[in-house]
Amino acid sequence: MQTIVDPEHGFTFGEALYNVGGVYGPLRNRYVTLLLVHEGTAKVTCDDEVTIVERGECGVFRNEQYVLFEYDRGRVSWCEGSPGTLTESIAQRLRQVPAKIPISESLEALQRLGVELGSGSTANLNMLRNALGQTLYAVYFHEAHVSERDRHIPRPVHRARNYIEENSEKDVTINSLADLVARTPQHLILSFRKHIGVTPARYLWQVRGKRARHLLLHSGLTIAEIAYQCGYKNPYHFSRQIKQLFGMSPTEVRANMGYHKPSEVAEDTVDIAY
Predict the structure, then answer these.
(1) CA 79 remoteness from chain centre
(2) What CA–CA distance (Å, rounded) separates 114 from 136?
(3) Is the pTM of this model over 0.85?
């Protein structure tokens, strides 16, 4: 990522509201700009290549000669940096990244934090702003890679995976998934493994395990409560699966990964609302 954006020159965050539209540029110096369109539409001309960024989308633009931003009525924000030196292999990979992707909750939250830091310049502010900028661009390219990868996944596999992620606590079977996507169980298993890397059953256990790990670390639920809440048949089955996934029992996951009980659980605190 540092070859795309040079972290040594820092990052700037900003936002603007265009009540009737507007133009920013053309800029003749070299920049890397992550543009987020929250409302309205933006037309970006970057070295003669035009991209239309719609509401709820974002894109990274790295110009060599000039960049021009044209807006209709709406609200946009951005994170701007200086370009690093690209090797030919990195340039080739960059050309394969989608021109724009949906604005995720993670991107929205990081961008908001950057904007709220303001434009002041102190050692701590600059360090925090640069850390946010690097994280924001890293998240963007990660999500762009996922978006590009997912674009090649067949629709039935997409639908089966989404169903597993949204219903992992339920009794999900290969037959019910196959019926859902109108494929035979064998065809779905083969296609799912080809594009996701594991079978639907294995993916289901992974999703359940990740959710269970999150609850072990960030809730005061008992191990039995977590087991049933995540779709496991009983605490014994839950413990065996967690051991296979993480190399530790649920109790050890809690003990060794920073779990602490919420204060209301640890101290039996009285909570009074006025």
Answers:
(1) 17
(2) 9
(3) no
Structural domain boundaries in the chain: 5-116+124-151, 155-256
Query: Nearest 5°: phi and psi at 198?
Result: -140, 170
Q: Does domain 5-116+124-151 have CATH number 3.30.420.40?
A: no
Lowest mean pLDDT among 55-59, 87-91, 234-238: 87-91
Weakest mean pLDDT among 2-11, 52-61, 106-115, 124-133: 2-11
Is the Cα dihedral 179, 184, 185, 191 positive or negative? negative
**67-71 and 5-6 beta bridge pairing:** unpaired
Assign a CATH topology to domain 155-256. Arc Repressor Mutant, subunit A (1.10.10)
DSSP state of 48: T
Q: Which residues pair with 23 in a beta bridge?
A: 70
Average pLDDT over residues 74-96: 77
Distances (CA, A) of 32 to 7, 139, 143, 240: 11, 15, 18, 48
First to last CA, the chain: 50
Q: How far apart are CA 239 and CA 237, in angstroms?
A: 6
Tell me the average pLDDT of the chain. Answer: 86
Nearest-angstrom CA–CA distance, 27 and 91: 22
Q: Which residues pair with 37 in a beta bridge?
A: 57, 76
Nearest C-alpha neighbor of 188 from the set 177, 198, 197, 172: 177
pLDDT digits (tens, 9 = 90+) for 236-264: 999 999 998 888 899 988 887 755 555 55
